[in-house]
Write a structure and sequence with these properties.
By secondary structure, the chain is α/β, with parallel strands linked by helices. The protein has helices spanning 16-29, 44-48, 60-66, 70-73, 94-97, 107-112, 132-140, 159-172, 192-204, 218-222, 230-233, 238-259, and strands spanning 3-7, 34-38, 75-77, 82-85, 121-125, 145-150, 179-187, 209-215. An 8-stranded mixed β-sheet has the order 3-4-2-5-1-6-7-8, sandwiched between helices.
């Protein structure tokens, strides 16, 4: 069965798209069949993996508004051994256009059902908000959410609201929804603040924080401008090594969870 994770945090600039692209690329390098689903109108995951968002004939917009099947919107990326369900700037109006739509919270979930079993992992890149697009992602994420958390001041700000949203979606839309794990990003080992933030988040979410910590790394920031995951752009960089280890940690945890079922 396909595992579907939403990568979410309403705070911008915390590493959501970076995590989706690089976790997806390393999962693919491990032989997993991967689909990146970009539900962010900014389409950073789309452009960051080398797809021109302005040249698209079909995108996430068509899936959500016209109920086009995911299989008809998906673009293969053979150079990275994964596929993408791309976003488009037109998606910015989807929040308003979906307001009166029937089953508006289930549009992404319904669309992804058409590729269930075709992939081992679907990673959904969410916008930096808790609006209807993110609710669609949370409703579709049958295996939980991955929450990147920046190792900086006020890192926990907004997480309370996010957890409340997750609980509401679990109660009314997706009973299986749970926090799969928090990922500490942009860590600077030279500062006490980074270490304190990690400790604080781990104390608030015991047992839910990945051991792997992603460092602040300039190569991670450069890679999307070249349309490449870090595994291709700078495979020996500290950021690449961190995402490679994070991928192994995720796979190990999923395998253990499966064997415990």
């Amino acid at each position: 069965m396909t595992k579907i994770y939403a990568v979410v945090n309403q705070k911008g600039g915390v590493g959501k798209t970076t995590t989706v692209i690089n976790l997806g690329a390393y999962l693919a390098s491990k032989g997993r069949r991967v689909l990146i689903a970009d539900i962010d109108p900014q389409a950073n995951a789309t452009s960051g993996i080398g797809v021109n968002k302005y040249d698209l004939q079909m995108s996430m917009y068509n899936l959500l508004l016209e109920e086009t099947a995911a299989a008809d919107v998906t673009h293969p990326l053979p150079e990275f051994n994964l596929d993408i369900l791309p976003s488009h700037p037109s998606l910015a109006g989807a929040e308003v256009e979906l307001v009166n739509a029937i089953g508006r919270e289930y549009r992404l979930r319904k669309g992804l059902e058409t590729v269930n079993g075709r992939y081992d992992y679907i990673l959904i890149d969410c916008p930096p908000s808790l609006g209807l697009l993110t609710v669609n992602a949370l409703t579709a994420a049958k295996d939980g959410v991955l929450i990147p958390v920046q190792c900086e001041y006020l890192a926990l700000e907004g997480l309370t609201q996010l957890v409340q949203t997750i609980e509401l979606v679990r109660k009314y839309l997706n009973p299986a929804l749970a926090i799969r794990g928090l990922i500490m990003t942009m860590y600077d080992g030279r500062t006490n603040l980074s270490r304190q933030v990690v400790e604080e988040v781990r104390s608030y979410f015991p047992g839910k924080v990945f051991r792997t910590i992603v460092p602040r790394n300039i190569r991670l920031g450069e890679a999307p401008s070249y349309g490449q995951p870090i595994s291709v752009y700078a495979p020996k960089s500290p950021g690449a090594i961190a995402y490679q280890i994070l991928t192994a940690e995720l796979l190990k945890g999923d395998a253990q969870a499966k064997s415990g079922d």
